[in-house]
Amino acid sequence: MQTSFIDGTTLYRQHNFKLPLDHNKPDAIHITVFARELVDLAKDKQDLPWLVFFQGGPGFQSPRASGETDWLKRLLQEYRVLLLDQRGTGHSSEISQASLAGLSAIQQAEYLTHFRADNIVRDAETIRIKLNIEKWATLGQSFGGFCTLTYLSLFPESLSRCYVTGGIPSITRHADEVYQATYQRTIDKNNVFFEQFPAAQKICNDIAQYLLDHEVSLPNGQQFTVEQFQLIGINLGRCNANLALYYLLESAFIQVNGCKQLSYSFLNQMQQEQSYLTNPLYAILHESIYCQGTASNWSAHRVREQYSQFNYQTGKAFIFTGEMVYPWMFEQLETLKPLRETANLLAKKQDWGNLYDADILNKNKVPLACAVYAEDMFVELDYSRETLANIPMSKAWITNEYEHNGIGVDGEKILSRLIEIANTLDNLPK
Length: 430
Description:
Blueprint: E1 4-7, E2 10-20, E3 30-40, E4 50-54, H1 70-75, E5 80-84, H2 105-112, H3 117-130, E6 136-141, H4 143-154, E7 159-165, H5 175-196, H6 199-213, E8 216-217, E9 223-224, H7 226-230, H8 242-250, E10 253-256, E11 259-262, H9 264-273, H10 280-285, H11 299-304, H12 329-332, H13 340-348, H14 358-361, E12 368-373, H15 381-388, E13 394-399, H16 406-426
Parallel strand pairs: 4-5, 4-6, 6-7, 7-12, 12-13
Antiparallel strand pairs: 1-2, 2-3, 3-5, 8-9, 10-11
């Protein structure tokens, strides 16, 4: 891999680090963690402050973005930025059904327990030390914000300031409470969508009924089901997504020899929407991000029974689901099928360690500036406010201007606001 290159006015440096799988056993199994450094070419010789970016997920690589990307362009005005491929993603000892194939389900489950936020943060902290950085800032998007609170719990002395966009979790509530809130927000988003596009309800019913009446395969040969179709509702939580979703739905059917059938282009798009196929770590560990000393026991699946409108029936209104992960996905999705037993073991795991330290967070001295989205479909506003109320030196900008992915839509404005907030917090007595 090329160690560095230049694109426009940005210099990119590639870093690979050999780190312990288990930081409590530094001499045992090691993994590779990759990170990409970006710096304004004209400022490379300057002693700039560093910022490490924590990607949303879990289970997704850092953005393969240009220095001209809106939010990165803003950061590069004053920071040297490190885009971290969290362990198990991208170039960082990637997790896939193929990489896990040589292990038993028990061995897979044990291995994967080391891929949560606590070890992502320990990786970042070890990298900070290896790069000889005294302190650095963080930016966490979505799950990256969860990582930020873990970092503030474990190594607050290593942080100069923290920015979070759409990612302040509850640090105490059970996964069931999280999903009860999330289902309600998902219903809200469905209502908005179908009110804006009333014709979409019939199209969705027609698609669902067609899937019940016919055996339909995605391009990879996987049978496509109503439950899988519902999953594309995850898009309802993103900025400017409703129109694009409607355009997708209205082109679902084509006529072939006088008969209606789902088009290849629609089915191809449905397969592409299933990021779980290429990022199984997301499906395997998603519920564990809410677990501290408790098992999830397939929380989203159980809580769904409290909201019967999500269980499609012929003649009833169709409703999309969101980012929830269900046990049936490990029975239906091709690349998840080999991991079914492993996923069940992890869902039953009760002895997950703590991800946050409330006592340390209650004494926080690091400026924490947050964009909290009032109508966020994935992170409950009330829980974010509940958490921040007990973290000194934190301030939330609560806005309904953006959805969960606001940083990708208007990143320069959002980050400028957060930098301004952090500057104000920096001037407060500590």
